[in-house]
């Protein structure tokens, strides 16, 4: 089985568990495809055999977290900065299981008021950020360059920057918004994962809910 290994505080538990099952001999014959350098390091430390999309262009199952989930199981991802590799790996999956707690459920993407990440090339990032902000001005969009803890631009695993979009209102048709973002030269990828999750597992006060596509 080829397994996409997600990134973030939630996915970390899943990767730990996969490592544990392997060690106990309860899981055999798996290959992991990590979605970030951090997950790659974690998987190596757990002895999980790894490969990549070049060698395994079809993935059986990916497990990952998300930042927002809308009622149609569309997601926002990338507040940890790993959206590009996640989108490549999870876009190549037969099944994509997303695990969240109920604080991640939103009425519409961007509805948490938190960042909607867009990965951009560093070259003239302000130009790209302005284009992004203008594209969504009707939704009260503010575009900000993400900084690291030293106040320097946050650099992704791919050597790019992240521009976070903060929205005051619904951006409307998500596919139209996605196409508009991807048409801007300088944009590499955005954190909206539309129609990609096949299952979302939601942990809440009253237990676990499983939502299937
Ligand atoms: O870039 C980060 C990933 O998209 C994460 O999967 C997402 O931010 C959710 O992370 P967490 O499980 O830590 O809330």
Automatic annotation (TrEMBL):
PANTHER family, per the entry: RIBOSE-5-PHOSPHATE ISOMERASE 2-RELATED, RIBOSE-5-PHOSPHATE ISOMERASE 3, CHLOROPLASTIC-RELATED
GO biological process: pentose-phosphate shunt, non-oxidative branch
Protein name: ribose-5-phosphate isomerase
UniProt-listed Gene3D superfamilies: 3.30.70.260, 3.40.50.1360
Listed GO MF terms: ribose-5-phosphate isomerase activity
Entry annotated with the keyword Transport: no
Transmembrane segments annotated in the record for this chain: none
Class of enzymatic activity (EC top level): isomerase
Domain of life of the organism encoding this protein: Eukaryota
Gene Ontology CC entries for this record: cytoplasm
Protein EC: 5.3.1.6
Assigned protein family: Belongs to the ribose 5-phosphate isomerase family.
Pathway: Carbohydrate degradation; pentose phosphate pathway; D-ribose 5-phosphate from D-ribulose 5-phosphate (non-oxidative stage): step 1/1
């Amino acid at each position: 089985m080829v397994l996409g290994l997600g990134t973030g505080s939630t996915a970390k538990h899943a990767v730990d568990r996969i490592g544990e099952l392997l060690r106990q001999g309860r899981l055999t014959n798996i290959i992991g495809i990590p979605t970030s350098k951090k997950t790659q390091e974690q998987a190596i430390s757990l002895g999980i055999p790894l490969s990549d999309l070049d060698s395994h262009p079809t993935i059986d199952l990916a497990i990952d977290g998300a930042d927002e989930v809308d009622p149609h199981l569309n997601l926002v991802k990338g507040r940890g900065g790993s959206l590009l590799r996640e989108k490549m790996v999870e876009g190549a999956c037969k099944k994509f299981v997303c695990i969240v707690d109920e604080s991640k459920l939103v009425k519409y993407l961007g509805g948490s008021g938190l960042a909607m990440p867009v990965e951009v090339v560093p070259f003239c990032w302000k130009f790209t950020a302005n284009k992004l902000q203008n594209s969504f001005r009707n939704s009260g969009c503010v575009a900000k360059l993400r900084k690291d803890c030293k106040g320097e631009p946050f650099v992704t695993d791919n050597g790019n920057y992240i521009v976070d979009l903060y929205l005051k209102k619904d951006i409307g048709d998500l596919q139209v918004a996605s196409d508009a973002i991807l048409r801007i030269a300088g944009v590499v990828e955005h954190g909206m994962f539309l129609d990609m999750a096949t299952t979302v597992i939601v942990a809440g006060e009253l237990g676990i809910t499983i939502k299937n596509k």
